[in-house]
Design a protein that fits this description.
This protein is an alpha/beta fold. 30% of the residues lie in helices and 20% in strands.
């Protein structure tokens, strides 16, 4: 066996890695990570700019602030698992983070290969290699071809970083859904109490060690037992009240003509249609059904005999690409280019409400549908929400990941009597370069409302577009 393979590894990360992947420090499993001082200085300078590299620099600095806040003594390294995060970002990460210590570069052998000002990370790796010879295996990690070849030439062990990935919703927040262990009833079934609710659901009162890990309106399920899909209604000490969810996957229980396609969508419908929940946060990758489920639930509940007077749709106006600038026309015409997801969802819902036969809808059917939508569905510009109070309205705010926590607070405070606000977003797709996944108002709001009894959050995980989108979400 090669001796170096038996030594603990210390990975030296360069700027070229961190400006591409702000979460790179969490990707080395049990191995330790070191950040040279010049790399930190470069990232601090880079965060002042614009673009994706600046956004990644901001995110890295926020991770480091989080880690050092409760671990001010960095000499012995900071456990990377100490990041305060309810998601899965640090799962399997047991290494430590070190910052560059005082090193004597003058003692390094002279080299014509590393004589530039941009070679500091290589010099740090060389100095650490000499200091920890026989104790640690020093590895320079880079995406820069020049750094890679220089380090190889002078005998350093070097690794090309290829694990570039975006931060997704589940990295930073919990899914809102938990799988129960197969022995759940053995550990939580003692003194079990059962009763039926007025709407026909079953209510369980259980006691056991898992209760302290749950939060209000969290959804739970027992694999292989579709009858045990429940939501947490109350928690007192080690006792919790659970209520079975309504099955909207059944064709006999549709929501504005559509059914839930899988478990998480069914949980989403239960939250969206629950009169006791006034704030819902729906997260997930592209194609998971955030807009469709929200719009269907909203239209299902509007009208004279329903709880809401109308449904309101709005969204962040930050473009994914170049800013299109001023759009001519009145307010509906100005908003029109931003309502593509809403129009796509309306097409699906209209098709289901007209029936699934091959016959095209009659003019009367079209007219009735359009009359209903024009009367009960309003598209609002996000800039007009300041100072507004929604009363008995079902409000959907799309692309919520683009808001900072102050904007999110302002939007959440628009909630008036008898209304519901649904925030939809995807932390992997932030176009606002002043916002990062950890500073997004959506992340902050989910954590803030986690234990509030009238809110729920769910991360939708299954793509329902072409399988190419699933591949994109998994590998990009």
């Amino acid at each position: 066996m090669n001796t170096r393979d038996t030594l603990p590894s210390l990975n030296i990360l360069t700027r070229s890695v961190l400006e591409e992947d702000s979460a790179a420090i969490f990707t080395f499993g049990s191995e330790d990570v070191c950040l040279p001082m010049t790399t930190l200085e470069e990232m601090e300078y880079l965060q002042k700019g614009e673009g994706k590299a600046a956004q990644n620099a901001k995110q890295l600095i926020q991770f480091l602030q989080n880690l050092t806040r409760d671990n001010p003594n960095t000499k012995n390294g900071i456990p990377l698992s100490h990041l305060k995060c309810s998601g899965t970002l640090t799962d399997g990460c047991s290494g430590r983070l070190f910052f560059q210590e005082a090193l004597d570069f003058q003692a390094l052998p002279k080299s014509t290969v590393i004589n530039g000002t941009g070679d500091t990370a290589i010099k740090v790796a060389l100095a650490l290699k000499e200091k920890y010879r026989g104790k640690k295996e020093i590895i320079l990690v880079t995406r820069n071809p020049s750094e890679y070849h220089k380090a190889s030439t002078i005998g350093l062990r070097v690794k090309k970083y290829e694990n570039v990935r975006g931060i997704n919703d589940l990295d930073l927040i919990s899914s809102g859904v938990s799988k129960l262990p197969m022995d759940f009833w053995d550990t939580h079934g003692e003194n079990l109490k059962l009763e039926k609710s007025a709407r026909g659901t079953t209510i369980y009162k259980v006691k056991g060690p898992l209760v302290k890990k749950w939060h209000l309106n969290q959804f739970l399920y027992l694999p292989g037992n579709p009858d045990l899909e429940v939501t947490v209604r109350s928690i007192e000490d080690k006792t919790a009240t659970l209520e079975t969810v309504i099955n909207y996957r059944s064709k006999s229980k549709t929501v504005y003509g559509i059914t839930a396609l899988e478990r998480e969508q069914n949980f989403a419908f239960n939250a969206l249609l629950d009169p006791n929940i006034s704030l819902v946060f729906l997260l997930g990758d592209n194609g998971t059904g955030k807009t469709l489920t929200s719009l269907a639930a909203g239209l299902e509940q509007v009208g004279p005999m329903n709880p809401y007077r109308k449904a309101v749709f709005t969204r962040s106006m930050i473009p994914l690409g170049p800013d299109p600038g001023l759009v001519p026309g009145d307010m509906p015409e100005k908003i029109a280019p931003w309502t593509g997801p809403l129009l796509d969802a309306k097409k699906v819902l209209n098709k289901n409400n007209w029936g699934k036969s091959d016959k095209p809808p009659t003019e009367a059917e079209k007219r009735l549908t359009e009359d209903f939508l024009s009367k009960y569905l309003e598209v609002m510009h996000i800039g007009l929400m300041q100072g507004k109070s929604f009363q008995e309205e079902f409000v959907m705010i799309d692309e919520s990941q683009e808001f900072d926590k102050f904007q999110m607070r302002a939007f959440a405070s628009r909630l008036g009597q008898g209304s519901k606000i649904v925030f939809m977003g995807n932390l992997k797709q932030i176009a606002n370069h002043t916002v990062t996944p950890t500073t997004s108002g959506l992340t902050h709001a989910v954590e803030c409302y986690r234990d509030y009894g009238r809110s729920a959050h769910i991360v939708l995980a299954t793509n329902h577009r072409d399988e190419g989108v699933t591949w994109l979400n998994d590998h990009w």
